[in-house]
Specification:
The complex is a heterodimer of chains A (420) and B (304).
Chain A: H1 3-27, E1 28-37, H2 44-63, E2 67-68, E3 74-83, H3 88-100, E4 105-107, H4 112-120, E5 138-140, E6 155-157, H5 162-176, E7 182-188, H6 192-208, E8 212-219, H7 227-236, E9 240-244, H8 247-259, E10 267-269, H9 277-287, E11 291-294, H10 301-312, H11 323-337, H12 347-360, E12 363-366, E13 369-373, E14 379-380, E15 384-389, E16 392-397, H13 399-407
Parallel strand pairs in A: 1-3, 1-4, 4-5, 5-6, 7-8, 7-9, 9-10
Antiparallel strand pairs in A: 2-3, 11-15, 12-13, 13-14, 15-16
Helix pairs in contact in A: 2-10, 2-11, 3-4, 5-6, 8-9, 11-12
Chain B: H1 2-26, H2 34-51, H3 56-78, H4 84-102, E1 108-110, E2 113-115, H5 128-131, H6 136-159, H7 161-171, H8 173-178, H9 183-209, H10 219-231, H11 237-254, H12 261-275, H13 284-294, H14 299-303
Antiparallel strand pairs in B: 1-2
Helix pairs in contact in B: 1-6, 1-9, 1-10, 1-11, 2-3, 2-4, 2-9, 3-9, 6-7, 10-11
Classes of the chains: A alpha/beta (420), B mainly alpha (304).
């Protein structure tokens, strides 16, 4: 082989090698998704748990082969998680950063007071050229305050409908305890979610279930003394006490109730966000018997597996965090259905495909059953009533299961399942 | 790129907040009321654009004016106290303002949607900029222009006789009074002007975030307002700007990759920065520090 032939052979070999490398790159692409939530401050656990679930879910999909992209190649998820510190400015800054980079979609935030401004900087109506808001899809897993996805057509949520949950819960309590007549409310007045849930959900739904609200006690997120509020509670002597506050003050109130020996005759109802390990870590003994509707409990094999995987990733599976698992699975399905390419030059088109794909969904598969999607990009998720029992959350009642049993003429039984 | 341009908006807003406190600190007053003025400007400007359909400029002007009037009103009683007492009194004012907005409900229907402040749930859809086709760069330029005007005016005033009078009041009230300076006029004027600047900053903040609620205007914001000029040194307005860039650009955004360690470092770096703080960008101590860091010798030594 002379020198010229040798050079020609080497050149062809190099080109082939480069071509094969390109083909390999094309065959497996990176799908960048971002998580963002509070990993600092009093609500730190929300972000820590959300990140653990997000990483567990994406790794699970990556390990089982990845996602089939629009051109037939395989995409693998890459997750970056950003701490918002539950601060609006930081949330905005993060979303601007994500939209400037090549992230396909963001999952988060955990705080409603971050979700509101973040959704506000997105384009309100898709395709409205006069609106210069960001065109970047956000699929929220944690921020639960009612009605937020309405703010922008680029915002989607997979959070439970508290309205549906408490409506069913108070009706169930009324049926189960026909002699119960009165409700006393406790509300963490300066926290948007707690306040909204008491005034717009719990209070209204208890009245509709024919209960009489005999009083309200108010406290603030940073309060540490609840003597006066619990004294009012004691004086009212209501059949049901309904507390709309997060684990930190919920535990304070429950401890003060124990000190003043206040115990509602029929039931103690808590806020969805308190159905987490933080409550049990803070005041398991005092929380014994509290009833909270939740959209996550390890009632089936898949949910149990998610709880186990989350623990391995350093988090805790609860109604907020496990939504991230469902979100990742929904994102995977939309990527396939909408033929997302995940190429650097198709970032904006891919984002639009994701948005349109998410908007089309009428129902999705969830860990507890089928999740219905509404016109205003919210979710209606299956739920159960959990109760604290001997330092663990157990399922007290499953409305869906009970309904199914009723149709077959069987008597619904109370199912107690350990929750990790 | 959009991210970096957007970051300039945060710098601009915090610079206005810091400058509002800078002016007061020059006269020897440490005020925690800036958070309250900032909140008033935010809600007022938001109401003007989102509810009444005003243009952003008169909306910001009204927000600033209202904050200024309230600053004038609290300026007189605040003169009766100084030092820690003034800090407590102005902090109480900020809390009154915050709790007012915590209970403030005023909504109108726009396209069938209620818009306006709803107590603790806050005030959403303050979307003047995106709704009117302003791009991120245009918003940043607009904010930059306001910061330039305010900062430029303060810089100019600082270098004029007026600046000397203000600094004289801050350095030694008795001496200033003995040379015929009217302390009441200077202090109340500084409080009023500080209120106007904070109000304008608040108006811009509401329009940048599109949503405000009472929790945004707590003690932390008031602390940041006075921390910027102190951290940046009191030499000139540029110190405040440098402090804002250091805190918001480096500590908040630059260290984000550190995750949980960021918060720990945040406090430590603030302490460090306070200990090596400079009077102004051209400060001799900064020059010496840089020389020391890069191993350069002083010119005088080199010649010796």
């Amino acid at each position: 082989m002379n020198r010229k032939t040798w050079i020609a052979v080497m050149a062809v070999a190099s080109m082939l090698a480069l071509g094969l490398a390109d083909a390999a790159t094309a065959a497996e692409r990176i799908i960048k998704i971002a998580g963002f939530g509070a990993k600092s401050g009093v609500v730190r656990s929300f972000g820590v748990n959300a990140e653990a679930v997000l990483r567990a879910a994406t790794d699970d999909i990556n390990n089982s082969g990845g996602v089939r992209l629009g051109d037939g190649s395989i995409g693998k998820f890459q997750v970056d998680f950003f701490d918002t510190r539950c601060n609006a400015e930081e949330g905005i800054s993060i979303v601007r950063r994500l939209a400037s980079a090549d992230y396909l979609i963001a999952v988060g935030p955990t705080c409603s007071n971050v979700a509101e401004p973040v959704f506000g900087i997105l384009q309100a109506k898709v395709g409205d050229s006069s609106d210069t808001g960001l065109q970047f899809p956000i699929f929220t897993d944690g921020a639960i305050k009612g009605g937020l996805a309405k703010i922008s057509e680029w915002s989607f949520r997979n959070v439970p409908s508290e309205d549906a949950m408490y409506k069913a819960l108070f009706v169930w309590l009324a049926e189960k305890h026909p002699d119960a007549k009165t409700v006393f409310g406790g509300v963490e007045e300066d926290f948007a979610h707690s306040r909204f849930t008491w005034y717009s959900v719990m209070k209204e739904r208890s009245v509709q279930a024919k209960f009489e609200v005999v009083g309200e006690a108010k406290w603030l997120l940073n309060d540490t003394n609840f003597t006066t509020q619990v004294r009012e509670m004691k004086k009212a002597n209501a059949d049901i006490v309904s507390i709309s506050s997060h684990p930190f003050t919920t535990c304070g109130v429950l401890k003060e109730m124990a000190r003043q020996r206040v115990k509602p005759r029929v039931a103690l109802v808590g806020l969805t966000s308190s159905s987490s390990m933080e409550t049990l870590n803070g005041c398991a003994a005092q929380a014994e018997g509290i009833i909270i509707p939740t959209s996550f409990a390890p009632t089936n094999a898949k949910a149990q597996r998610v709880a186990e995987l989350t623990a391995k990733y350093g988090g805790s599976a609860d109604l907020h965090s496990t939504a991230a698992w469902e979100n990742v699975e929904i994102i995977r399905d939309v990527i396939v259905a909408e033929k997302v390419m995940a190429k650097p030059e198709t970032v904006q088109q891919d984002r639009r495909r994701m948005r349109d794909g998410l908007a089309k969904l009428k129902s999705t598969a969830g860990l507890m059953g089928t999740i219905a999607r509404t016109e205003d990009r919210e979710a209606v998720k299956p739920f159960v009533y959990a109760t604290a029992k001997e330092g663990a959350w157990v399922v007290l009642y499953d409305p869906a299961k009970a309904s199914a049993l009723r149709t077959t003429g069987e008597t619904p039984a109370l199912a107690f399942l350990p929750q990790r | 790129m959009d991210f970096y341009i957007g970051l300039l908006q945060i710098f601009g807003i915090h610079t206005l907040l810091g400058l509002s406190a800078y002016l007061l600190i020059l006269t020897g007053q440490v005020s925690m009321a800036q958070a309250g003025f900032f909140a008033i400007g935010a809600y007022m400007a938001g109401i003007c654009t989102a509810m009444w359909g005003w243009h952003i400029v008169p909306a910001l002007a009204l927000g600033g004016l209202l904050s200024g009037v309230l600053a004038l009103l609290i300026g007189f009683p605040a003169l009766r106290v100084k030092g820690m007492m003034l800090v407590i009194a102005t902090l109480a004012f900020s809390e009154v303002v915050r709790l007012f907005f915590f209970n403030f409900n005023y909504t109108v229907l726009r396209d069938g949607i209620p818009i306006g402040p709803i107590g603790a749930e806050g005030f959403r859809r303050i979307r003047y900029f995106p709704e009117n086709g302003w791009t991120t760069i245009e918003v940043s330029l607009f904010m930059g222009l306001i910061v330039l005007l305010v900062g430029g005016a303060l810089w100019w005033a600082d270098r004029s006789r007026l600046g000397a009078v203000v600094r004289a009041v801050g350095e030694d009230e008795l001496a200033a009074q003995s040379v015929g300076i009217n302390l009441t006029t200077i202090k109340v004027a500084a409080m009023t002007l500080g209120g106007v600047i904070a109000g304008i900053g608040g108006g811009l903040y509401a329009h940048m975030t599109t949503h405000v609620e009472h929790l945004n205007f707590g003690i932390l914001l008031a602390t940041f307002a006075i921390a910027y000029p102190i951290l940046g040194g009191m030499g000139s307005v540029f110190g405040t700007l440098a402090a804002v860039v250091f805190v918001q650009g480096f500590l908040v955004e630059g260290l984000r990759f550190l995750g949980d360690w960021r918060n720990l470092l945040f406090g430590l770096l603030i302490m460090l920065a306070m200990n090596v703080r400079i009077k102004q960008l051209g400060d001799v101590r900064l020059r010496n520090l840089l020389r020391g860091l890069f191993g350069l010798r002083r010119r005088s030594h080199a010649g010796a």
